[in-house]
Amino acid sequence: MTRLHNFCAGPAAMPTAVLERAREEMLDYRGQGASVMEMSHRSPTFEAIAAQAEQDFRDLLAIPDNYRVLFMQGGATMQFACVPLNLLGPGGSPNYLDTGIWSGKAIKEAEHLDLANKHLNLANKHLAGPHIAGSTRGNGYVHVPRPDEIALSADAAYLHYCHNETIGGLAYDYVPQVDGANGEVPLVCDMSSSILSTPLDVSRYGVIYAGAQKNIGPAGITVVIVRDDLLERALPQTPSLLGWKVYADNDSMINTPPTYAWYLAGLVFQWLKHDIGGLNEMETINRRKCEALYAAIDTSDFYANPIDPVNRSIMNVPFTLADESLNSVFLSEAESAGLLNLKGHRSVGGMRASLYNAVSEADVQALITFMQDFERRRG
Ligand code: PMP
Questions:
Q1: In the chain, where are the structural domains located?
Q2: Residue spans of the chain under pLDDT 70
Q3: What CATH code is assigned to 18-274?
Q4: 211 CB-near residues (< 8 Å, 6+ apart)
Q5: Rounded to whole angstroms, how far apart are CA atoms 37 and 261?
Q6: Which of 44, 152, 245, 356 is most enclosed, with most CB atoms within 10 A?
Q7: Residue 102 designated active-site
Q8: Cα 344 to chain center, whole Å?
Q9: Could you tell me which residues come within 8 angstroms of residue 28 by beta carbon, excluding any fewer than 6 positions away?
Q10: What is the model's pLDDT at position 180?
């Protein structure tokens, strides 16, 4: 058996120790005579797995008691719709920061809801379409809006941003301030590709959400952290399965949850706590990984990364070759060397190495060695 160096943007590499543990417990979960995927989500055994996973997640991020943790399905994309549905009940306009493809998709979903509301001619006419409170589209999204470039609308119901643009390789180096004209505006953050990569001050946020398939576990589960006072703001037309409060009131078991993905996420949290030693240690390792790769890119004329250094992602490192005609040979030689999934997203081309938590320093070193060798031979 060989596990190769996997730089996939998602579904991403899982820690080998987690997969080994899952393999050991596959046929007979701790004397239950059945695998986790074959037991009722209402059984005491699964309820204990679910509760332990939530507790470990809370411990890792030091989540304050006045926040609920929800385990949902539908991916981060479903949350693009859940955010306006669950927060616009009292009226106002949804505010967004635009830093690339993923924040753009969240904005599109808020526009869609606005159009649907107008089409239905709903009574709540005080709803407004999304307000773009800051955007760096004009300069090709090579940095995020600076704090003084963010302008909330006077009626802001929330401010949404994407902490780490997975495709662009762009990340915030600060937490936006959200003092609106009428007091605090809840800050809502898509952390799909950066959650659990560093410690985090959850109390700065109203809502944080993340699809699992990068740093949490396999695809199929989505984690939402929501401050409990924000659970009462849903629009009346919110379908029950999209309503955060319904999940909060039912321990995320309103219907059958993705039990096996939940269990695997729990194993990943255990790995982070016990094998890695927590998020401070994880951050130290992650910084060493990305700094080594950025240094290799910056010290070469053959490779380039366009992002302003203060906003470079620690998780997703896009890079281009000076001679783009070498892209396909780079990828095929990389694959032969055991370096998988380095092709950039189809919308931007070039290469991208995703360095999520389960990607080791040895994986990154193998990539750097290959890149330097390729440049010597082809540059
Ligand atoms: N937001 C970000 C930042 C992402 O990276 C992704 C997936 N790559 C999504 C949202 C969409 O996630 P999903 O496919 O789980 O809906």
A1: 18-274, 278-378
A2: 120-127, 180-182
A3: 3.40.640.10
A4: 10, 75, 76, 77, 192, 219, 222
A5: 9
A6: 356
A7: yes
A8: 18
A9: 34, 35
A10: 63
- Asked if the domains 18-274 and 278-378 are classified in one and the same CATH topology, the answer is no
Q: Is the CB of 190 under 6 A from ligand 1?
A: yes
| pLDDT (0 to 100) of residue 126 | 61
Cβ(193)–Cβ(10) under 8 Å?
A: yes
Q: What DSSP string runs through 254-301?
A: SS---HHHHHHHHHHHHIIIIII-SHHHHHHHHHHHHHHHHHHHHT-S
pLDDT of residue 277: 98
Residues, the chain: 379
Tell me which residue has its CA closest to atom 12 in ligand 1.
76
Q: Atom 5 of ligand 1 has which residue's CA nearest to it?
A: 166
Write the Ramachandran bin of 244: left for phi over 0, alpha for psi from -120 to 50, otherwise beta.
alpha
Can you tell me the distance from the alpha carbon of 34 to that of 46, in angstroms, rounded to the nearest whole number? 12
Q: What confidence score (pLDDT) does residue 124 get?
A: 56
Neighbours of 175 (CB within 10 A): 15
Superfamily of chain region 278-378: Aspartate Aminotransferase, domain 1 (3.90.1150.10)
Kindly state if the Cβ of 166 falls inside 6 Å of ligand 1: yes
Nearest CA to ligand 1 atom 9: 76
- Burial string for 317-341 (b: 16+ CB within 10 Å, else e) reads bbbbbeeeebbeebbebbeebebbb
pLDDT the model gives residue 125: 57
